[in-house]
Amino acid sequence: MINEKQKSILEVAMKLFSKKGYHATSIQEIAEKSGIAKGSVYNYFSSKEDLLFSILKYYHDILFEKIVHLDKDPSLPPREMFVKQIQIQLEEFVKYKDYFHMHMREQAGEMKEGMREYFFKMRAQLHNWYEVRLRQMYGPKIEPHIYDCIAILSGMIREYMFYIISENIAIKVDELAQFLVHRIDGIVKSFDVSATTILNKTLMNEYMKTSCAGQSTKIRLLSLCKDMKKICHEFTINEPYFEKASSSIDALIEELEQDHSEPRMIIIEGLILMIEQFNIEALQPLIAEFRMSLPMLTNAH
């Protein structure tokens, strides 16, 4: 949990990174705009890169906490929940438009390996959330086309956000969220006429393998497990299935940390299946990401 002073520094830095770019902004300038000494910035953040990581994590966590909060409402059918969650995503981008500008600017520029991996993790989390929601809405018929649908939806959101934020065009985000889901309806229906696919599971697995090349697969899987644990802890502790899921995640972490010559895939897959069967909505994107990354664990040995 960050304090008010850290939050203030993050907001100043984000505005400067958005306006000037990461490389053109100095810690001295951030300190001056924050009304503190340069050395005080280092009391909270070890480096400029640490500051950028903190900005990304802080605002990304705000977005996903609000999205996941809706998962706790059992009264919402999948379609209505997806529309509301897209609306939240759009509203948060508008609310924190400096973050959106900075995000787009840094993705377009040259990034260090660690930063590239973090951007990939953020994108993968959003991708897996779309994947879970689309499966819930359309069922098995979307399976061959799900990655194309995610690419189309992501592209539409990004383009409309450019018009709203960069060009200041007045668009109502609640209407836009409904509009986007209607367009996906039409695209899914069109697959009955033409079943051609561009992106498939093989291509996506290759993409994951290349994008994660600089990061240990085991470390990535353990990080996902810890994120699952955090979600279980945040939900009602009195719910017995959250406690059981948490215990299964502990067992999965313990198995991943074992130093076997070959990963015991049967045990790992059994544990992730057990966690999945608790049907905890907020865990589904993380489980999907875990499953996408898991084949690379065997390739690493």
Automatic annotation (TrEMBL):
Entry protein name: HTH tetR-type domain-containing protein
Pfam family, any one: TetR_N
Record key words, sorted: DNA-binding, Repressor
Annotated PANTHER family: ACREF/ENVCD OPERON REPRESSOR-RELATED (PTHR43479), TRANSCRIPTIONAL REGULATOR, TETR FAMILY (PTHR43479:SF22)
This protein's record includes keyword Protein biosynthesis: no
An MF annotation (GO) of this entry: DNA binding
PROSITE patterns for the chain: HTH_TETR_1 (PS01081), HTH_TETR_2 (PS50977)
Keyword Chaperone: no
DNA-binding region: 26-45
Domain HTH tetR-type: 3-63
